[in-house]
């Protein structure tokens, strides 16, 4: 192939490529122009839409402003109407008040006129009857009482019966709901305690030569040890429960140790006395835990623990106080009072027995102690008034007094000696016979129920009421008694005739 041919071929190829490139360029140019035209149209459409949106938003704002103006105008009209109504009502009320004030003045003047007229009539009647105002009033009362005495007595008895039945029913419900919530073990130890011995040989060791060991033990503990023919038993006798406890624990430790002589007796006795203080604190904490009461000052906890070895008429003071606290809490809950406060008041009501000496009132002494400790006034009043030595000022104190009576009157809770019982009943009977108009007195249920027969010639039906109040007042003033005493007055007239 010649060079010319090659050149021609190259030229032909270049011309073809140039023609193709020019055609492609022209196509791109056309497409660019078309795209530009389209973009121009899009911008025009957007501008038209923006203009239209602006016009619509302007119309919406105009409508909204018109509506707001209408609503505001309506609200102002309504407010004006309401104000007008209120003003009209206020004017009417002012008119009514003016009329009422005028009527009040008129009635006051009328009342004064009537009082003056009545006073003049009374003075005229007094002049005619020659009686003073008080004498005329008393004469009128006496006449009304005589004419309506029977109806009054029937009405009073009927009302008393109805109210008593309602009160008894309500009290029975409250007490029946309260009592099942408490459970305290009974106590059977009063003045003696029995200790079992391991064998007869130890009994001999306990007595020893000429009673040296037993005498020393009695001297140390302050109790009396009774060793009789009963096999393997020693009885500890003392009215002091704390001494009785110390002697019992000392003897039990001596029995466990097996050795017994004055040296060991003194050593173990001192250990028991030292352990007793810790025991009392533990018993105090235990009582607080049983009643779910927060911990208190150590001195107060120890005093509560001292209840453990104290007795009142044979009833253990610790168990009695816990029992009263539980009953008080239950009754207070039924009466919508503060159960926690009632529980504390029940626990502390007899705390004066720990520090009171012979002849002192444990209620007053206990109240003074609780005041020093900064206790709640309701707790203080419950302690000083649960035997009605002072007036009861708080509902909680009434609850505690009732709970104390329930605990003390529970069968088997307390005991009295025969002589003391007879003496108290004799004093009560003698006190009632001092009141004039009484024919016979029957005392039942250990003095908790009294039946009085009155002389019908000296005392009428209305007088029986006053007689019972006099009996109650005498018992309240001169005797110390637990719980509630029921007094029944009987007035009857018997006519007996013999027919032939």
How do you describe this structure in short?
The protein has helices spanning 3-129, 133-147, 149-178, 200-207, 212-221, 241-257, 262-290, 298-306, 317-334, 339-348, 352-355, 362-372, 377-385, 395-409, 418-433, 461-478; strands spanning 192-196, 224-226, 233-237, 311-312, 315-316, 438-444, 449-454, 486-490.
Could you spell the SSE succession in H and E letters? Answer: HHHEHHEEHHHEEHHHHHHHEEHE
Estimated helix fraction: 55-70%
**Mean pLDDT score, rounded?**
76
By DSSP (H or I, 4+ residues per run), the number of helices equals: 16
Roughly how many Å apart are the termini?
193 Å
The order of strands across the largest sheet is 1-3-2
Structural class call reads: mainly alpha
Q: What name does the CATH topology of the domain at 310-409 carry? A: Hypothetical protein af1432
Shape: flat
Radius of gyration: 51 Å
CATH class of the domain at 310-409: Mainly Alpha
What percent strand?
A: 5-15%
Q: Write out the CATH superfamily name of the domain at 310-409.
A: Hypothetical protein af1432
- Going by CATH, the architecture of the domain at 310-409 would be Orthogonal Bundle
Largest sheet: 3 strands, antiparallel
